[in-house]
Amino acid sequence: MLSIQHITKRYRAQPVLRGIALDVAPGEFISLLGPSGCGKTTLLRILCGIESPDTGSLTLRGEDITAWPAARRRFGVVFQSYALFPNLSAAQNVAFGLQDLPRAQRAERVAEMLALVGLGDQGHKVPSQLSGGQQQRVALARALAPRPELLLLDEPLSALDAQVRGGLQAEIRRLQQQLGITTVMVTHDQDEALSMADRVVVMHEGRIEQQGTPQQLYARPETRFVAGFVGRMNLLPARVVAANRVEVGHTRLHCDTQAFRTGSTLLLGLRPEAVQLHRADTPPAGATDNRVRARLLEAQFHGPTALLRLHCDSLQATLDAHWPTGVDARLPDWLHGELLLDLPAPALHTLPLPESTRRAA
Length: 361
Ligand SMILES: Nc1ncnc2c1ncn2[C@@H]1O[C@H](COP(=O)(O)OP(=O)(O)OP(=O)(O)O)[C@@H](O)[C@H]1O
What we know:
5-stranded antiparallel sheet; single chain; membrane; Mo/tungstate-bd_C_term_dom; CATH 2.40.50.100; globular; ATP binding; 20 strands; cell membrane; binds adenosine-5'-triphosphate; alpha+beta
């Protein structure tokens, strides 16, 4: 439906977008995810039509819209700051983009939209009489009221507290699916991107680093940046010593090394939830591949799980692991003794070293 072709943008000499290409399918929810300064807001502003690219083009259902001003695109936009007219009621704010409709139809549509966002009885209030979450619902109703072809969301929830935010994430997703509206949302919050989007596009320094479903990105990060930015990942420098065998510190581990030649260096990634802990005095029976000794350095309580920092002499590394805290929210005493860690081969990701590190090596 929307095709973004080789978009570049510089501010003065500084390149901010370095060749962005992306196709968005009808009804799809895309999240642009990346750290501050990676260019995601600039890309969204180019989609809105309030910024123009230096090179590249945008097509909407085959039609080139690159030179169209924002008003002609008629996309629905919600910004981080609620951007409502403070002296207009919620209903008047929603009616703002409906000037073309006859009065009766306009009132009907406003009532429908306010009901859709759960504010059917709040239309008379001005923004200062509404909570932050309610104001953002009004902004959403206003953006959706003219039935736009594309909904653009720029960090719409980042000014809200965690609880309101979680509720609205689910609600926006429900609405988006109910209306089938094609949506592009900018966020720097990986949880938000993973939980809401059909496809997450990870941006880094003005480029698309990787894109895929939330599950693909989490299960198969392709670069160190994505591995570190989407979820938590232990990263260990390693060297391929034979097919499917790597050396980390003083120890050798099994993992899939298909993409690497023997002798090459790489990073081994392992999610904290994939680390299996056992007590060393009663080791489990069975295969002992990828089993190393470790000791607990510290534990951080996070409610349903504790994050354990473990030191492993043979790997010459410190690893993070998750421990489910259970109903009594306590760690068993044996975790403070000698431990064995199983690092399952299928959970070990092999990642290329970043360019700069490779040169130094
Ligand atoms: N109008 C502008 N003039 C000059 N530089 C700009 C302008 N807008 C953005 N930049 C610069 O471009 C880079 C990318 O900004 P952008 O807002 O797109 O990043 P972002 O990924 O959305 O970050 P954030 O999450 O902090 O908004 C930044 O270095 C920023 O300082």
